[in-house]
């Protein structure tokens, strides 16, 4: 019984290893090198960083206002 189980396991293992991928299989991936997309992404990152910096600055001002250590009042 043990030998049958091990034999079936070995057959299943070998069967799946050959069907999943082949080392000789050449997969080609088409890569777009459009500079406009890269520039747009960089602009988006820059805008997000500016927004984050503004939000941090506003948070610091709020903390200063609430603790009485200064800051600029929004009202």
Features:
0% strand; 75 residues; mainly alpha; 2 helices
Task: Kindly describe this structure.
It is a single chain. The chain has 75 residues and is mainly α. Helices cover 69% and strands 0% of the residues. It contains two helices and no strands. It has helices spanning 2-20, 35-67. The longest helix has 33 residues, at 35-67. The chain starts with a helix and ends in an 8-residue tail after the last helix.
In short:
By secondary structure, the chain is mostly helical. 69% of the residues lie in helices and 0% in strands.
- Helical segment tally? 2
Global shape: elongated
SS content category: mainly alpha
Could you give a short account of the major beta sheet? Answer: none
Q: Strands, helices and their partners?
A:
Layout lengths: L1 H19 L14 H33 L8
